[in-house]
Amino acid sequence: MSKNGHDFSVGDHVVYPAHGVGQVQGIETQEVAGLKLEVYVITFDHEKMTLRVPTAKAKTAGLRPLADTGLVSKALTTLKGRARVKRTMWSRRAQEYEAKINSGDLISIAEVVRDLHRAENQPEQSYSERQLYESALDRMAREVAAIERIDREAAIAMLNKSLVKATAAAA
């Protein structure tokens, strides 16, 4: 809780499960159906979108602060792990990957990146695999970039370094 009685303050970077990293631009009171409602105004620059989340429902909506460094190193360790691909139909796996990406949980997102990562010497990915991989990598990179105060490209390079080590170790 910050000094104003809210979980987040203006300027804070936050993670919203379905959209990734955003920044709190303000806290407003709006009137909806005759009721006064206090909302966080969160912008997601990469999606050119503004979201208003009721302050009272922020926790249940899954809004959370950026991961701490301990969680980031756990996520990087997850990337170095062995890919775990279930022998189920692709459509079922794709749904599970999508759910993990939209959970907003950094470790779950890292699992998707790890499981869908392909090294140069591995078979080509299908279009939908590539889309899910890019989505998970982007989501993870944006959070790491905000935590480390680096740009998205530098964060992707950092993540790729962990992935390459994992692939080299597996070879």
UniProtKB/TrEMBL annotation:
Gene3D superfamilies: 2.40.10.170, CarD-like, C-terminal domain. InterPro entries: CarD-like/TRCF_RID (IPR003711), CarD-like/TRCF_RID_sf (IPR036101), CarD-like_C (IPR042215), CarD-like_regulator (IPR052531), CarD_C (IPR048792). Signal peptide: none annotated. Residues 7-117 form the CarD-like/TRCF RNAP-interacting domain. GO terms for biological process: rRNA transcription. This is Transcriptional regulator,CarD family. The lineage of its organism: Bacteria, Pseudomonadati, Pseudomonadota, Alphaproteobacteria, Caulobacterales.
